[in-house]
Each structure stands twice: as C-alpha cells, then as structure tokens.
Write a structure and sequence with these properties.
CATH topology of the largest domain: OB fold (Dihydrolipoamide Acetyltransferase, E2P)
Order of helices and strands: EEHHEHEEHEE
Strand order of the largest sheet: 3-4-5-7-6
CATH class of the largest domain: Mainly Beta
Oligomer: single chain
CATH architecture of the largest domain: Beta Barrel
Distance between the termini: 27 Å
Helix content: 10-25%
Structural class: alpha/beta
Number of helices: 4
Number of domains: 2
Strand content: 25-35%
C-alpha cells in the first residue's frame, strides 16, 4: 500500500511536518477545482499504474441541445415552465409516501385513483428533495413495506408546472416518477 499526501489550499510538500515530509507528496494547488481534480486523477492513475485515458471521439458523445435530458434539477425549481418534458435519472432515498391530490394527478395526465404522492431525497444527500407523483407498477413498488427509507434509482420527468396560488403565486414543478428500481446492497 502506498500513502501519498495530497497538498491543497496553499499547503506545499515542503511545508509538511516530519515524517510525512519524507513521503512523496503531490501538490494539487491550482486556480480552479477542475485543474485540481485533473492533477489528483493523474497522480492516482500513475500510482495505480493505470493506462492514460483515451480521448472520446466526438461522434461517440451524446447529441447536445436535447430537451429530453437534464443534468441538474435546479432549473426545474427556478423556472419550471422552461423545462417541461425534461427527464432526470438519479439515485434517491424514499421519504414520505401518501395519497395523491386529485387535481395534481389530473394535471399530470395520470389516473387519480392509481396515483400516489412520493417525496424523494437526492443521493448522496444534498438537502434537496422532490415532490413527485407515481402510478401503476411504480406506485405498487414504492408502497411495499420493505421500500420505506430505501434507496432507488429513478427516472423523473417534469410534465408540467402549476400555480401555487395565493399568497405566493409561483409556478411549482409537477414531476412524475416514471420508473424506479430498488438499489441492491
């Protein structure tokens, strides 16, 4: 096993105390976090004796500008109307599961008698939670006793936005949990 001290936030290998100074430390100080991470990844690659990464050909990259995917959920809450029909796949911890509001289910184009309300928390924890609707097989999966507090991989879709009403009158995202599977392990 090899131990490599990593110097950042202004620390330098020369400033390390004995006996740590005798180890081969790496300095990842850089102006940007991206450059710091690149330096750290390169050191790990070298120490682990891994091959250098190969560049990805441009034709292998997913097409840009697609409205069917989104990399961040922030826009869904800041400006939900501008993100309708976007999808997001991620890991979530199950929170509250309850009966669904009929008006919201209908606004989402779902059968209110087969729809449930689900609160999801992003994993790893970010403090962000999402209020979603689920129906059919997804709802049946989430209603099981062994799912309470569990982690799922889920696919979300922002299907609409609705007015929260007085006194706020802000647009709120209407999110449907389209698919879910229990995370194993």
């Amino acid at each position: 096993m090899k131990v490599i001290p990593v110097c950042h936030k202004g620390m330098t290998p020369a400033a390390l105390p004995e006996p740590i100074r005798r180890l081969q430390a790496v300095d990842i100080n850089a102006p940007t976090e991206a450059e710091q991470l690149r330096k750290l990844a390169e050191v790990v690659r070298q120490v682990a004796d891994l091959p250098a990464p190969s560049p990805i050909p441009a034709e292998a990259l997913p097409p840009g500008g697609s409205k069917s995917t989104v990399t961040s959920l922030r826009g869904w809450f800041v400006r939900p109307v501008g993100h309708v029909d976007e999808e997001f796949t991620g890991m979530f911890r199950l929170g509250n599961i309850a009966s669904s509001d009929t008006a919201r289910a209908e606004k989402a184009g779902l059968d209110p008698t087969d729809t449930i309300f689900v609160r999801l928390f992003q994993e790893p924890p970010t403090g962000q939670f999402l209020n979603c609707l689920a129906q059919g097989k997804v709802a049946s999966l989430l209603e099981r006793d062994d799912m309470e507090g569990g982690v799922i991989e889920g696919k979300l879709k922002l299907v609409s936005a609705f007015d929260s009403g007085p006194p706020d009158h802000k647009m709120v995202p209407l999110i449907v949990l389209q698919s879910a599977r229990k995370r194993q392990g």
